[in-house]
Amino acid sequence: MWLYSHNNAHNWGDSDIVIEQEIWDFFLLVSNNSTEVNEFYESKKLLSVTNLLGQKVTGIKNNFLFYIYDNGDVEKKIILD
Q1: Which residues of the chain have pLDDT under 50?
Q2: Edge-to-edge strand order for the sheet containing 64-69?
Q3: 75: enclosing H helix or E strand
Q4: Rg (Cα) of the chain, in Å, rounded?
Q5: Are 68 and 44 within 8 A, CB to CB?
Q6: What pLDDT, on a 0 to 100 scale, did the predictor assign at position 60?
Q7: How many domains does the chain have?
Q8: Does residue 9 fall inside a structural domain?
Q9: Do residues 47 and 68 make contact, with C-beta atoms less than 8 angstroms apart?
Q10: Quick one: residue 22, left, alpha or beta (phi over 0 = left, psi -120 to 50 = alpha)?
Q11: Would you state the pLDDT for residue 12?
């Protein structure tokens, strides 16, 4: 946070501060590169596949299933035939 004081009370037009430059400097400090995409891929191991009742299932299609991974992720899937 910055607090600026200048000589002309509330008149920014005749200021000793170039407000446009201050705004630009601020955004250069706090913004990151907008073209940069940070994606983190971690390997995860499938622990089990369960139905809505929590029963472990294998190879069932046209049902709502939960895919539970070792990193705590849970994917909800319906595999349509």
Answers
A1: none
A2: 46-50, 64-69, 74-78
A3: strand 74-78
A4: 28
A5: no
A6: 82
A7: 1
A8: no
A9: yes
A10: alpha
A11: 60
